[in-house]
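Discussion board: Methods & Data

I've been asked by a reviewer to show the raw model output for two of the constructs in my manuscript, not just the figures. I'm not sure how much to include, so I'm pasting the format here to get opinions. Each protein appears as its amino acid sequence followed by a line of C-alpha cells. Is this the kind of thing reviewers expect to see in a supplement, or should I convert it first? Here is construct A:
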Amino acid sequence: MKKPKTIVVAVTLVISSASAMAMAQDGQFFINGNLGQSNFSNSLTGGWDKTDTQGALRLGYAWHGVWDYGIEAGYADLGQASQRGSYSYTDLNGKTQQAAYQGSFSARGWLLGGNLKYNFNPSWYLSARGGWFQPRTTSKYSSSGIALRQSQNITQDYFGLGAGYNVSRSWSLGIGYDYYDLGRDFGHVNAYSATAEFRF
C-alpha cells in the first residue's frame, strides 16, 4: 500500500464532505466508538506478539442524501506489539547466567478526516473513511535493571471500510477494518473492530 494513494483518498473524502454542506438539506452530529483487535506489521517486531486490543472514538457531522457525507475527528489507541523472553550470558566469574528481558512497541494518536456511507436500503449500509493520523509511537526495552524508552510523533494517514445495520435514525451497529500508516520505519497496523454509532 503506497502512502500517496491513501492521501489522495483522504483528501477526496474531506473535500467531498465539505462540498456536501452546500447541497445537503439534512444532517446530524454523530459520535461513534469501535473496539477490536490490532495487528502490527513492521520489521522491528519479528517474532513478537503483534496482536493487541485496540479502540477508537470519533465525533463529527454527517449530511444525509443517497450518500451520507461527513467529517470526523477522534483518537485511536492501537495497543502494542510485545515480546518477553530470556537469554544466557557469561558473568565475570565465567559462570553462565540467565537474564529476562521484555520489549514493547505502541502507537496511539489523533485522527482528522472524512467519511461516506451508502445506505442500500433503509436498514443496511456500507461505509468508508480516511484522513490524517498523528500517532505517538513508543518503544520500550528492559533487561537486568536497564530500561530504555524512545517516543516519536509522526503524521501519517488512515483509511477504513465498514458495513452495518441502522437500528434507528439515531443508532447503528457494524463491523469494520482500518489501516493505520505508521511510516516507513514502523510499518502499519491493521485493525478489526465492532462499531456502535449514535447520531443526534
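Construct B, same format:
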Amino acid sequence: MVDEAGLTLLLARDELHRLVNAYCRAVDRADYEALRDLYHPDATDAHGSFSTGGVEEFIAQLRAAEPYVRVSQHNITTTNFVIDGDWARGEIYCLVFHTFAGPDHDSDVVIGGRYLDEYTKHDGRWKFSQRTIVADWAYRNDPSHVDFGHPSTRGSLRGQPGQADPSIALFAPPQA
C-alpha cells in the first residue's frame, strides 16, 4: 500500500530543493528571467542593505552589481522545510563566494549564512513568496587571493558569472 501523504510530502520537499538550487544557478549565471520566474509577482526579498523589496528591485541591484562581480557561487548545504498543504517555510543554509572588482585590485568575500524562506504553491508550482538572508559569518580577503597556478586547476575551464560561463553551453538546447 502506498503512503499517499508521505509521497506528497516527499515530492514537495524535492520540488522545494529544486527551487532553492535553481535560485543559485539563476543568480550565479545572471539569468534574470529564470530568477524572476522563481518568485511570485508580489514576493519580497530582503538581502540587507544590498536590496530589500520586491523581486524587481532585487534584480535591478544584481544588474547594477554585475560589472563588479568576477566570481559568484552560491552553494546550498542543509535544508529544513516545514510543509503545510500549499504553503511552506524553509531554513536554507548557504555558503556564498564572491570576488568583486575594485579600483586597484579585486577582493574576495565568503559568507556563511541562511535563507529564511516562505513558499506558496500556485498552479502546481512552488515559488518564493518571501526570502530573507541571515549572515552568520563573513570573511574578506582584500586583495583577492585567487590562484589558479596549482596543477589541479591550471589549464581548466574558468567559471564566471553570467551567460559566458562554460555551463551555459551544457544546458543549451541541441542545435538542429
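Answer (T.O., handling editor elsewhere):
This is acceptable in a supplement if you add a one-line summary per construct. For B, something like: The radius of gyration is 18 Å.
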